[in-house]
Each structure stands twice: as C-alpha cells, then as structure tokens.
Amino acid sequence: MRAYTLKNKNIEVTFIERGGQIISIKVPDAKGNIADVVVGYDTMDETLAGDGYFGALCGRYANRIVGGKFEIDGEKFQLDCNNDTNHLHGGVEGFNSRNWTVTPVSLDKFVQAYKLSLTSADGEQKYPGKLEVSVIYGLTEDDQFVIEYEAETTKPTVINLTSHAYFNLCGAGHASAVNHKLQLNASRYTPICAKLGTASGEIVPVKGTPFDFTSAKTVKSACDTDHEQINMIQGIDHNFVIDNYNGSTQLVGTLLDPVSGRKMEVYTNQPGIQIYTGAHFDGSEKGKNGAPIEACAGIAMETQIFPNSPNYANFPNATLKPGEKYKHTCIYKFCK
Ligand code: BGC
Questions:
Q1: Cβ of 290: how many Cβ atoms within 10 Å?
Q2: Domain 3-177+275-335 carries which CATH code?
Q3: Is 12 in the active site?
Q4: Ligand 1, residues 237, 275, 303: which to mutate, most atoms within 8 A of Cβ?
C-alpha cells in the first residue's frame, strides 16, 4: 500500500490510497516537540487490518441514514444496511474501503497537494447515479491542512462526504484526549433517539446541556454529566448545528490540548459538525505507541450535512442533481 506525504516546514501529513486514510499528522508544539496527532496504528499491516474509518474519507453518505431508506422526487431507495438496521458511512463498502487514485497537483495556495479521485458506479451500495468524486488534500505555508471535496452525479442522489480522523493533540497513544478543551460555534445540536445514535430530527438549543461548547470547556466535563443524551452512548456522538451558516467557509470550532498547548481550528462551509468521542473503543485493540485504544483516545470532528438529512425536511438538503456540483471544504489549522 503506497503512502503519500505532504510537508511544509512544520507539519507532515501522511495518507494512503485505501480510503484516502490519513495515517499520521505530525505537529510541533511551541517548544518544537513533535507529536502525531491522529489515532491509528504503528504499522501498515495493522492499519490495513484495523479500523477502516480511522482518518478515512467517508461516503457516499457519511453518518447514519435510518433504515437505509430515502426518497427523491417520490422515488424510493433502499440502501444496504451495515449498522444494525441503519446505513452508516456509505455502507459495507463505503468510500473508506475503496482505493482512490492519487495524483500530485500544483496549486498556488498549497505548498504541496494531492488529488484523490474515484468513480462510484450507478447502484453502488444501492445509491442512484454514477458519482465522480475528487478530493484535494493540500497543506498551506501557515499550517492549514485543507480538504476540498467535489462531486458530480448522473442521476439525483444523496451525498455527504467527510473525513474521519480522531485527533489527539497530546499525541495519539500517549494520553487520553478527554482533557482537551473544545469550543464550537454551535448554539444548537441534533439529539439522538436510540442506542444506535440515529438523529431524532429535532434541533434543540445547547444552553443548559452538556452540549454547550459555545465557550471552551473540557470534553470530560461534558462526558461526565448525567444527561440522557450522554448516557445513551457513553459520551458525545452528536451533530452540532453551525451558527450563522451561509455556505461560505468559516471558523466552526477549536480543539486545544492545555498540556502541550497544541491547538487545532476547524473551518468549513458545511452546516454541521459531528463530534465523536469514540465510545465504542474498549481498549481491546492496540494503536500507536502500543497503547490500547480506549474511549476518548481521540476526538473526531467531522464536518458534514446532518445525519439522516434525506429523511427530515427541516434538515439541510443532501440531494445532488445532475448538472450541480457538490463542494465541501474542511480545514484543520494547527496553531501553537
Ligand atoms: C459515528 C459513530 C460510529 C463511528 C464509526 C462516527 O462518525 O458518529 O456513531 O460508531 O463513526 O467509526
């Protein structure tokens, strides 16, 4: 499996063809100490055999579609279900398990960039329309790792692409991310309704709940709160509704490790961000540094449309029609 590395004077991002999976991001702190800030494995063999969502590109529809069902213009579709009775992250063979075609590209705004592309056939995982997808991974001079997604379809379909890295700014495998401070420009979130984490369709204020990250606070303080939404999945696995969403790329959140001082800002043009604290990691698998991967080993910050959007009229529209272009930007900017 070929690995590709993007480098500027501070940061190094390495990814592979399978799933476009980001297998390491090496970032210095203010003293110049380098840490690899994404959860993963020490070897390629473990990476290929391990959790296929770590750092991967997810699609055609990242997150859950309840029952794998949706309708476009009255036509009903039934996707394959791979998460009990739901469709998760594009199904059994989502984009995370596909080999992407990788080519170096030269773009003025990036010190270095690669284009990853794939074709998703009409009917793949039972989605309608042949989809041409391209993703740019670019690194800027000022430590922004930029992901630019584009897609076009031959038939009306649904789309929600995301990147599934779990960040640990102490260095993956060295300490839990539970004491990271998280801030989100989101005064509302979408609650879940069952153990499987499916969105209920409501949009509610975060005020007075553990989901209020409008001012920075530790992830632990939210996860330790006795609240039915937290108890249901032993942590956070929720979509936050970005304030003042207008389709342009804006700062939506910040993650900070108070110990090293490493900080990551997240920018996107998407209406939502899924925060996942990795409740399903039970320590049975060893990751980087030989350390067991436990809950809160890292925090996923997945920019996206909302979960199950195709079935809720009050959620943003996830339909892509022929002649339209899906455009999604996500930036992870590292600061000291
Ligand atoms: C979801 C989790 C799911 C995980 C699988 C996350 O994006 O929010 O519910 O278990 O992906 O890796």
A1: 9
A2: 2.70.98.10
A3: no
A4: 237
